[in-house]
């Protein structure tokens, strides 16, 4: 888990430092608008990290849920509620992505 967090932080740091400079392939008279690239980066990070978190959470909840259902099938509806709560994290990420791109 620590390595995943460190990897995500490294990717964020590298991408953030790479997109803040000027585009050297263009002449100096052309102004570079980094706002659109930052919107795309922010929208991608919002959805990507939310989907990754939902995937990790769903793996944990799904495994525990299957164990609970195999022992007591009457608890199946409660397991589905927990699975739905974890899936809502990805939906929040999609909503934030559309909010960022709409501005």
UniProtKB/TrEMBL annotation:
> Which Gene3D superfamilies would you find in this protein's record?
F1F0 ATP synthase subunit C
- Which residue ranges does UniProt annotate as crossing the membrane? 41-67, 79-101
Q: List the keywords (alphabetical).
A: Membrane, Transmembrane, Transmembrane helix
Q: Per its UniProt entry, which superkingdom is the organism in?
A: Archaea
Per the record, GO CC terms?
Answer: proton-transporting ATP synthase complex; proton-transporting two-sector ATPase complex, proton-transporting domain
According to UniProt, the name of this protein is ATP synthase subunit C
Which family would the database say this protein is a member of?
Belongs to the ATPase C chain family.
Q: Which InterPro entries match?
A: ATP_synth_F0_csu, ATP_synth_F0_csu_sf, ATPase_proteolipid_c-like_dom, F/V-ATP_Csub_sf
Record domain V-ATPase proteolipid subunit C-like: where = 41-100
Pfam families cross-referenced by the UniProt entry = ATP-synt_C
Major place of localization? membrane
Q: Which organism is it from?
A: Candidatus Nitrosarchaeum limnium BG20
The membrane topology term of the UniProt record is: Multi-pass membrane protein
Enumerate the GO terms in the molecular function aspect: proton transmembrane transporter activity
An individual GO BP term: proton motive force-driven ATP synthesis
Location of the protein in the cell: Membrane
């Amino acid at each position: 888990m620590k390595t995943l967090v460190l990897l995500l932080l490294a990717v964020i740091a590298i991408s953030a430092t790479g997109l803040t400079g000027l585009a050297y392939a263009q002449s100096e008279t052309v102004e570079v608008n980094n706002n659109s690239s930052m919107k795309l980066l922010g929208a991608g990070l919002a959805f990507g990290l939310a989907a990754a978190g939902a995937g990790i959470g769903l793996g944990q909840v799904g495994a525990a849920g299957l164990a609970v259902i195999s022992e007591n099938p009457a608890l199946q509806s409660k397991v589905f509620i927990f699975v739905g709560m974890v899936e809502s994290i990805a939906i929040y990420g999609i909503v934030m992505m559309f909010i960022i791109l709409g501005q």
